Amino acid sequence: METKDTTQWLDTSDPRKFIENTAKFNNLMMMYRCAIREVQTKLEVLNDEFSVENKRNPISFIKTRVKKPESIYRKLQKTGHAFTPENISTLLNDVAGIRVVCAFVDDIYTIAALLAGQDDITVLKIKDYIKNPKPNGYRSYHMIVEIPVFFSSGKTPMRVEIQIRTNGMDFWATLEHQLRYKKGIEEMAGYDKVSRELLECAAAVISMDNEMQRIKDEIGEFHDI
Questions:
Q1: Catalytic residue list contains 44
Q2: Fewer CB atoms inside 10 Å of the end CB: C or N, the chain?
Q3: Which of 38, 44, 53, 161 is catalytic?
Q4: DSSP string for 142-153
């Protein structure tokens, strides 16, 4: 693939062009933040309904983020594409991200199915790392969705990445990321041993998730006494 000029959008030789491009980037990031709010509202509505109908909340908490400019730049640079609004919106699926943390494994699939069933959401891609964990032990349910967002200029379809996981999966993934991605850790003596130990911790989390799901199934849905 021919590498394109990744500095094109960052050119500061013409102040007017730089200001114009900065405004375009800020506007695009605003649009991604609005897309996140649209999806987050849908999740909160579902959670509220469950609270009334089933006397419990399947969603423990929701975290959101918009990818940082340097992360977007590096990702486009790696594939040889210029840092432009057009490339960001057409080539990247994970600029807007939502992490949904649930109590039980079956809640993950319930929330995913309810989102997918909404007529203004288009599911573009699914990766089920729960049924098919990554080699390092990572587990989560990933969805790339497209949702229309209404601005003054009209309706714009926006992409959002949704990661749905249990409390246990989130606990492991957060700590594993902190431990594994220290600078230069892959060159340290005993790295293979550390990787095996992290994988063993992942197996323990899987066992805990499965046991908690079994207990929930055994006692049935939770109701107020």
A1: no
A2: C
A3: 161
A4: EEEEEEEEEETT
63, containing H or E segment: strand 59-66
Categorise residue 176: left if φ over 0, alpha if ψ from -120 to 50, beta otherwise. Answer: alpha
d(C-alpha 62, C-alpha 37), whole Å: 11
Domains of the chain: residue spans and CATH: 8-165 (3.30.460.10)
Q: What is the pTM of this model?
A: 0.85
- 47, 58 contact by CB (below 8 A): yes
DSSP-assigned letter for residue 9: G
Write 42-46 long-range contacts (CB < 8 A, 24+). Answer: 42/115, 42/118, 42/121, 43/98, 43/100, 43/111, 43/115, 46/111, 46/114, 46/115
Q: Give pLDDT tens digits for 172-214.
A: 999 888 887 765 566 677 778 888 898 999 999 999 999 999 9
Answer whether 142's CB lies under 8 Å from 129's CB: yes
